Fold each of these.
Amino acid sequence: MKEILNVEAIFGENVFTPGKMKERLPKSVYKAVKRVMDYGGELSLADADVVAKAMKDWAVEKGATHYTHWFQPLTGITAEKHDSFVAHPDGDGKMIMEFSGKELIKGEPDASSFPSGGLRATFEARGYTAWDITSPAFLKESGTGVTLCIPTAFCSYTGEALDKKTPLLRSMEAVSEQAIRIVRLFGNTRATKAVASVGPEQEYFLVDKEKYLQRKDLIFAGRTLFGAPAPKGQEMEDHYFGVIRERIGSYMKDLNEELWKLGVTAKTQHNEVAPAQHELAPIYETANIAVDHNQIVMEAMKRVAIRHDLRCLLHEKPFAGVNGSGKHNNWSLGTDDGINLLDPGETPNENIQFLLVLACILKAVDTHADLLRQSASDVGNDHRLGANEAPPAIISVFLGEQLEDVVKQLVETGIAATCKEGGILETGVSTLPDLEKDATDRNRTSPFAFTGNKFEFRMVGSADSIASPNTILNAIVAEAFCEAADVLEQAGEENFERAVHDLIKEYLTKHQRIIFNGNGYSDEWVAEAKRRGLPNIKSMVEAVETLTTDKAVKLFEKFGIFTRAELESREEILYETYAKTINIEALTMIDMASKQILPAVIRYTRTLADTVIAVREAGAEPQVQSDLLKETGRLLAEAKKALEALKAADEEAAAMPEGKEQAFFYKDVVKEAMEALRTPIDALEMIVDKEVWPLPSYADMMFEV
Ligand code: ADP
Ligand code: MG
């Protein structure tokens, strides 16, 4: 019998949930905590002391020895510094374990060792972590034992955000405030706040540990820097939704269990398009918690893989020639009285509030397409965006037939009299049920697709934090709501209906160029988008400067999401990150080519040369062997030359001062030199004896997990 997993019993076991607080805290303290959680404000130090003690007692009962302020610096991954609860021995020599409200609320990591883009010089290193009461504390079990993790925001001494959470929280408040202005205009007096909800679908690859450890590129860069294609890729379309193999299944089972304990609502799992690629999706939740949970998911994916003698690759493009990994960021906005502002209802044409919200979102996305594009860029994602598998680097919105038709009517006549309906799908088999059909088909090629009652932003990279895309989404929608509310509040109640119609028509007319329902992967779309004047920002480094355009600074400062200094520091960090990442990749290639691949090829040429001599001595003509030797020699020479060129390019790049120019040099010169080295080496892999090739092949890695 298989052991029974009781999901209800384990769910949230390792989380200090509001439920546990309710049980363990005096009523008045619990109420105070809830109030701050829901409506902001500050918890008194006395109350924080009580919460800290309850949290520590719970954690210690569960075996925790340490606590940490868990935060998300601009490295894109999480950071933690562990402190034990050990305080001091009592008179009898027994250790007292303590955790105070002050320790719960505030931490003081050395800010100078995290990227700050010049906001913090090393001599003025003070930085603070501040407890994010809206995201529950949790226990992490790892090699160090059990640690109480307290989600925190990370700021400098002077109050600048040094992390991804602070701007996200600011953006959530901004969009909430503006959304409430909109619903008030439609007579809603109950709602007090609006909450952005997010459900991120996470893609990942699994490879066998033994093979992983033989590949320095996977170890250092998270992706293969060399590798000839396997005889089979994804062309048979047999992996997507295919039967989950035993070993992978047992990994998924463990992962789910771990995530459920951590309060993550792991919901969907399946094989993805590329061989060895999989996906996990949780149920959507408040943006802030979804961002934290996505970090927990990524960490758990890696940790659980190690237990199964596997390695989890979150890189956006671990293998050339097959699909890379992304993260579909599903986003919607709901009020605390239970209305999803993105729900069109049965007859969207009559739902004026929905149409206004939609018009605002289209305006926001069109106005700030460049920022959205930037928010989904990271070094790895450059291999996907614009390549032939992921959405192109052009932002456009898919609305589907039903809404597109409504928009068309509104633009043309100012009213949408009719609305396309879904109807019934007849299966044609009497024993099968007929199915109710959605009013709209799906479009898998759109970067920003309306999917029923939410938008799905599909550009985001698999390894990246989803904090930035959601910060941008909240910010740009807040701005559009604010501008609409300014106009409509001015109009007054008696003119409201007329004014709202005019505004919807105006926004839709002005911004309809952002709507595209066709095949986003086609060349025609690239040309058409150009004609429409939509930006097509092809790489991460080209996207960086969108953060400090006048339009962007105005937006962020208006809603207090970023200051200009914070934006400038982020730009600096992005250029540095890009340069450092490509440098590591280049050095890894140089290392592998010099110490592993070229020596192996040279050994192989010696075997070939010996064979040529032996065959000739035996009185035969070694034509084949000699041709092969020549071809190998030619590729070897090409590789050696490319290796020297890459070394020179990388040295030149590394000597440049950090910043934009250096980042562009890495993109334009060093990356090209890397490609030039990869080409002959991949060709060599196809002719050199597998016995002597020093690296596991694509086939070994993708088909033998
Ligand atoms: P798909 O068919 O595209 O995979 P799903 O319905 O399975 O779409 O949803 C994918 C993700 O979207 C899940 O994480 C789901 O919880 C989330 N999601 C569903 N509804 C909403 C919503 N209203 N707001 C935000 N995310 C949502
Ligand atoms: Mg989806």
Amino acid sequence: MNEYDSNRIYDLASKKGFEKTNNFEETDCYVLNTCHIREKSTEKVYSDIGRLKKNFLNKKKPYVLVTGCVAQAENEVMLKREPYIDAVVGPQSYQELSQIFSSFEKRKKNNFTDFDVVKKFDTLNKIKNSISKVSSFVTIQEGCDKFCSFCVVPYTRGQEFSRNPKDIIREAKELVKNGVREITLLGQNVNAYNFTENKKKSRLSDLIFELDEIRNLKRVRYTTSHPNDMTKDLIDCYKYSKKLMPFLHLPVQSGSNIILKKMNRRHTREEYLDVIQNLMEVNPKMSFSSDFIVGYPEETSRDFDETISLINEVKFINSYSFIFSPRPGTPAAKMKILNKKIQQKRLIILQDLLEKIKNYKNKNEVGKINEVLVENKMKNQNNYFSRNKSSTPVIIEEASETDVGKLVNVKIKKYNRNSLFGTVIRSNKVGEAA
Ligand code: SAM
Ligand code: SF4
């Protein structure tokens, strides 16, 4: 979501005459967009600003903005600790940025951390989205009402808010005109998307079917979902939608019911596995990835073994795993932290298993034909970057610039831990696609 937000911040700045630069020295305004989901991000802000200060020693100081969830969480503390920062702007106050960019020298106020998400999207909706990457994001939902015990999102992004579907579809069409061919719908809790106007309800499944109708849009994905919001209408999309990819990132965090309860996840291991089974029934080609928190307070080796057994059961194709990070203000931050060595040992075991499964799945693709969407020519190489249906990177030889933005069939020849490698099949033969 920060990638999407950064781009929208750029759109607001460019309206006021700013241009992107990679040259530190000529920067007039420096925007540091931040994430607060795990610790260290706050300290990274201060060390980045330290580097910036050195660069601008004896030169005119650039205007320094800290945006995103660290700005939201730290606000006044940050402004006091680092006077080099001119303003902090929380993620639900980006509507203020237009004004900030027009008159930053004259501004007195420097703390913009209100939760005015409606006004924010009203402002952003009026500004054309300039993204033109083949695979791009569209935020459809923000915030979260679930309050998992470990998570800062409900405090930094605020309550659940769903954008008007008309604005979403308009933005999606705009992106397709820019050259975008795959859209990933974004939300902290994307499948809780729920918009009602004149008694007409719109859910994520409705959006997916509307996107299906956009000519030249080839693929649709969404992230990140909560298992409890995997409703039947959404599951059925995996059978009836023409463009929704048969791949789902569905965070589970832990395989132990005891830990899931302590995390306030509001679902059990069995309920999670039921969702996976229901999805497999509507589309046997589905594959899954997940998020895991390792070393949660009071996690026993038995709890950890249950997570391992869940991974073995679902065989996730790709996943993210993190050691529990206490976030100030969340209920879990008050719990006793597990021994660091135990946490690290468990993380290694879990990541080794995830890696083994990923390797096995990649190996299994060798010799098969994958349908991929070609995204771009790779830097300093003649190869092209693409992704198959389950989002695995596929590096292709013998592609050309005219393949960019197109779906092509690739014969997989080899693999490594992260990617598949293959060549384009130019015949009309349609093979077994991953
Ligand atoms: N909404 C999604 C869900 O319900 O699972 C998750 C979104 S969260 C922004 C992304 C991931 O960050 C989580 O799935 C979790 O694994 C990880 N995460 C969040 N808080 C964390 C914490 N305090 N310590 C470690 N990992 C954390
Ligand atoms: Fe955080 Fe996701 Fe839980 Fe919401 S549902 S509190 S975003 S982990």
Amino acid sequence: MADQEDDIVLAELPDEELIPQMHDDLYDGLKDEVEEGVYILLDRGWAPYKVLTEALVAGMKVVGDDFRDGILFVPEVLLAANAMKGGMNILKPLLAETGAPRMGRMVIGTVKGDIHDIGQNLVTMMMEGAGFEVMNIGINNPVEKYIEALQSFEADILGMSALLTTTMPYMKVVIDTMKESGIRDNYIVLVGGAPLNEEFGRAIGADAYCRDAAVAVETAKSLIARRHNQATAG
Ligand code: B1M
């Protein structure tokens, strides 16, 4: 693979060849090449969101499938994740550059026992791009950390992420603790992550399950608007 890479000049590839090449580079954990590809697409006038979804997220899907099937192992996936983050870091300021009005404040973090953070970083970027202020508290968060962050940041929304079937039940622990402390209804609770679904979101008492970052933005916008309307009516 590496020998072939030496011969390929990314800037000379047309879009329809550059995209699969970037997926290969992501798969191989070639951060510099992935970053170069992102710059090339932006130079060609691609919207940052299109680069994100078609060049990066779609490439990561292949990595995920091969990880599941035992073709890739943790060290390779870490390299791919690092390459993905390189590309995301270039896009982050561009996605946030919309000059959108302040929409609300969100605390987001991955639950206790879980160290996957690419998805929640993406949600953070997209929410910031849509005008939300976001406090990203990272990975492996116990309930106390969520509650402390919600209160200190004066958040409107709690976002929780879980990528493992073994860690997703912890979301219910957080929501139940919020209920016990009498603060549940002060916040909109959104949950996401590959193993979740709508039914799970409902069952644990979240306000909504968000399939992806774009859905998270739309859901947050509509639930915040509904809250404002209720507050005005009441
Ligand atoms: Co992990 N891993 N991993 N992993 N890993 C998965 C999740 C897995 C599905 C792979 C597989 O088998 N196919 C599998 C889980 C199986 C299961 O539980 N059913 C798995 C496993 C088993 C593991 C380990 C146990 C492996 C091991 O050690 N033997 C281990 C667990 C570590 C731990 O957390 N305690 C582990 C470790 C790792 C790495 C460290 C190597 C690395 C993480 C690096 C990092 O995040 N910094 C890693 C990765 C990269 C993956 C895959 C390949 C990719 C995840 C990802 O970043 N996807 C993943 C396979 C997969 O998901 N297909 C896998 C891209 C990202 C953009 O998508 O995170 O789904 P996603 O986020 C989306 C939506 O879900 C949604 O929006 C995002 C953007 O659209 N969303 C939200 C997510 N969070 C949200 C929160 C919201 C709203 C929407 O709040 C409002």
